[in-house]
Amino acid sequence: MNGNKSDNTGFIFDRDTVLHLRIPFSFFLLPVFCFGVSQASSVHIAHAIIVFIALHFFIYPGSNIYNSYMDRDTGSIGGLKNPPPVTRKLYYASIICDATGLLLCAITGLENMVLMAVYVAFSKAYSWHGIRLKKYPYVSWLVIAFFQGGYTFMLAKMTAENNTHISWFNTQNILAMAIASLLIGGSYPLTQIYQHDEDSRRGDNTISYRLGIKGTFIFTLMMFVLAAGLLFYYFSTYSRVFDFFIFSACLTPVMAYFLYWFFIAVKDKQNAGYAHVMLMNKISAVCMVVCFTIIFMSNHVPVR
Predict the structure, then answer these.
(1) DSSP conformation letters of the chain
(2) Which domain holds residue 40?
């Protein structure tokens, strides 16, 4: 993983390095952050914006580029159909992105920086060959589901409310964290469905590879149904049932495309490819961002 000597020369953030950051891919993870802010009792708007920038423009891209450096994929990866060659610059870029993101979080409080540092540590453990959580299908799924789901919800809501006290972990917030983890845990295997061959060659027996194409779709459907059921309980108990109807309406295009894709992928596994994965991600992300933005606005959360 040391790369060639030429890898260390020139500007770190050249065109190839920037492409490997896959910054647009961060949009696919935005719904969880929006979910967290939408459920905040009050919003410290400046802190929320700073942590949003830190997470989506530095921490997520830093994880992406570090994963690219470790995997050295030659085929399509999330958000990048034809990845450029991997060089040592990617490693240095990941450090710069992580450091910048953590420093931004420090502006909002040292507690937020520490919480974000924990996220960074686990994202590195996911890819780093010394630990390589990615090669353990169920452990990696749990780590991704929790950290990109429940943990990110926690970061977003804690930041918005400016509250990192242990009392934050009440029944309502823990339930919301579980829902966010289920939403990510359901969608994550779908992002691996076109990489079975390349993952298996590296020895990364992902949960999607274990489940197979049909099993991945069924597993995702089960996770979404469970998450929807818990969301109904959550909204009817702690908010308004109307919020669940907003969620259901916004989820309709997502489920329509999901079922269509499921049907054609089972008929021909070639349809479980990169283009369909990316389109599924786009539809889901747009619909869920719209959903939680509407909920945020309809709740008339006071902004200070």
Answers:
(1) ----GGGGSS-SS-HHHHHHH-GGGGGGGHHHHHHHHHT-SSB-HHHHHHHHHHIIIIIHHHHHHHHHHHH---S-BTTBSSPPPP-THHHHHHHHHHHHHHHHHHHT-HHHHHHHHHHHHHHHHHH-TTT-GGGSHHHHHHHHHIIIIIHHHHHHHHHHHT---GGG--HHHHHHHHHHHHHHHHHGGGGGTT-HHHHHHHT---HHHHHHHHHHHHHHHHHHHHHHHHHHHHHHHHS-HHHHHHHHHHHHHHHHHHHHHHHHHHH-GGGSSHHHHHHHHHHHHHHHHHHHHHHHHHTT--B-
(2) 11-298
